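Researcher: Please predict.
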Amino acid sequence: MQGFHALGWEVHTNGDVKNALSSRGISTPFAVVPAEFLCRTEKNELPSDILLVDVSDGYGEDYDRLCKIAATKPVVLVNMGGMTNFWDYPDFFIVFTTHFNRLATREGRIFPLSFGLSEDTILLSNGKDLSQKRNIIIRNFSATFSQSVRNALDLMLVESLEKLFKVDRRKTDPSDYLAQLSEVAAVCAYGGEFVPDYWGYDYLRDRWEKMRIKTYKFKYMGASPVVLRWDSWRYFESSVMGCAPIQMDFNEYGFVWPINPEPWVHYIPVNLNSVSDLPQYLSDRVKDSPDFLIQIGRNARSWVIENYNPRKQAEYVLSVVQATWPEVVL
């Protein structure tokens, strides 16, 4: 919404504008939007240009109505939910999803989207002293379902990191978390669920076909297992605060954003084939160059602000809509 405003667009919503939009702090994500930022639209009114619909929690009662609207104007679906990898979409929708993986694709016109940054987060980070970084690593995940990657790396990576680095495992409130990020050099920013090719197992496939369940029926599956539900707010909040994100290797595991970060430049890549060697490698690099992690954090901060500010996000969405629906003048 901030990006559309920067481009001169009005944003109309049928949501609650009286209390505006806010969050609990830098995490998930930090944004404070005044009520006048949005124009109230009654549920039965239709916008004149593009209809963007958040379907992270499903279509609700609007599916049939959205199908009819899509016959005359672009209907853009945005799904940032944890289950988006398991959805198919009709071809008449233009769909943007987080957690996009080129190794496990679904039916529909689906394009990658990242969580990105709000203007509020960028301004907040600009006001912090990020010059006193120490070679400390944050690992502060909560125990949640469908996070087998984090569970595996707790055993395969974090325990070994703790032998060579100070690993801060504290879970703090937003104000203290901001102080943590201001002081540390790196953050465990990975997530994900290992999903094998269940559909290739005759027993499960036959059972699910009888029940008309398509959760694990992928249009294309280029590996087994694949890493799904992999994206995390932590990459963006860590990067904007000048911390080196520790993330699964984008190239190796098929992760796609509109623009991917470069390994060892904008993040520390984790490859499961060599993960046991990573802690010692990082330790050796820091001994040779004490600012090794700190420099990756600096690179990540510049890169993420340049490529994932709200204006760039909105420009990307509009460019895809224009290419997909050329008769619409934007």
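Model: The first strand starts at residue 12 and ends at 13.
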